[in-house]
Design brief:
Layout (H helix, E strand, L loop, with lengths): L1 E16 L2 E16 L3 E5 L6 H8 L7 E6 L2 E2 L3 H4 L2 E4 L11 H11 L4 H14 L15 H13 L5 E5 L7 H16 L3 E6 L2 H7 L2 E6 L2 E7 L8 H13 L2
Parallel strand pairs: 3-8, 3-9, 6-7, 7-8
Antiparallel strand pairs: 1-2, 1-4, 4-5, 9-10
Helix pairs in contact: 3-4, 4-5, 5-6
Length: 246
């Protein structure tokens, strides 16, 4: 079964300026699928429609045309939401709380039973390599550590699909490696991981496949095991140059 299916997805924003309404095509007829158990990269420059597509997948926006399906069920769906863990590009975390406290808060919001919540918190903190920092206040964490807390909250309700919006942005080399390791560990545990990024080198290291989009359009789907190591960036730039040169 496919974890994600996107069919002819289109999103047009209508922006009002004074007395005029202007249309902006954010997503333009996207179609692709993500296999269950796959790490799938959603690549494009800033402003290419990645976050809009993710919001459509999550049911936070409604498409102008087309459909999204998660594990065969059409989005939006309350029942399917329980199978999704989501990390936004800029997760909002209360810096005065510890890692364990913020996860306990999210767990209560998600209605996770109290008798299993502490065990789940221990498990996700171990997964994201923060078990020794569970009582450290988030205000003392680096950007990379905060991103890992964000992944931990996305994992807390034991979802089958992780959707991560720009998980590598702003991380130093150590943070990049830590996030890469977390994503690979999620795949090893049977999760499907779909993430957006404009950091091509990191996507090439962890993904089974990537899709390249630009100005809302799908340009190319690439299997990383069918290309030479280090060549994804050249493919990415070449596909965008083809559009720009027309």
């Amino acid at each position: 079964m496919n974890a994600i299916e996107i069919k002819n997805l289109t999103k047009i924003y209508r922006k009002k300026r004074l007395s005029k309404a202007k249309k902006f095509l954010a997503v333009d007829g996207l179609s692709f699928d993500v296999a269950e158990g796959e790490i799938f990269g959603f690549l494009g420059p800033n402003g290419s429609g990645k976050t809009t597509t993710i919001k459509l997948l999550l049911g936070l926006l409604f498409p102008t045309a087309g459909d999204c399906f998660i594990f065969g069920e059409k989005v939006p769906s309350l029942s399917i939401s329980a199978k999704i863990g989501y990390l936004p590009e800029i997760p909002y975390l209360y810096k005065y709380l510890t890692a364990k406290e913020i996860l306990r808060l999210y767990g209560s919001i998600s209605h996770i039973p109290k008798d299993s919540l502490d065990n789940r918190i221990e498990k996700v903190l171990e997964t994201v390599k923060l078990k020794t920092e569970d009582n450290t206040r988030l205000g003392e964490f680096s950007k990379g550590m905060l991103q890992r807390v964000g992944v931990a909250q996305a994992l807390l309700h034991e979802p089958d699909l992780l959707i991560l919006d720009e998980p590598f942005t702003g991380l130093d080399p150590i943070g990049l490696k830590d996030m890469r390791d977390v994503i690979l560990q999620l795949k090893a545990s049977g999760k499907t991981v779909f993430f957006s990024s404009h950091i091509i080198s990191e996507a090439e290291k962890v993904c089974n496949r990537v899709v390249i989009i630009y100005k809302g359009k799908l340009l190319k789907i690439v299997r990383t095991d069918e290309i030479q190591s280090g060549s994804l960036e050249n493919i990415f730039i070449s596909e965008i140059d083809k559009i720009e040169s027309k």
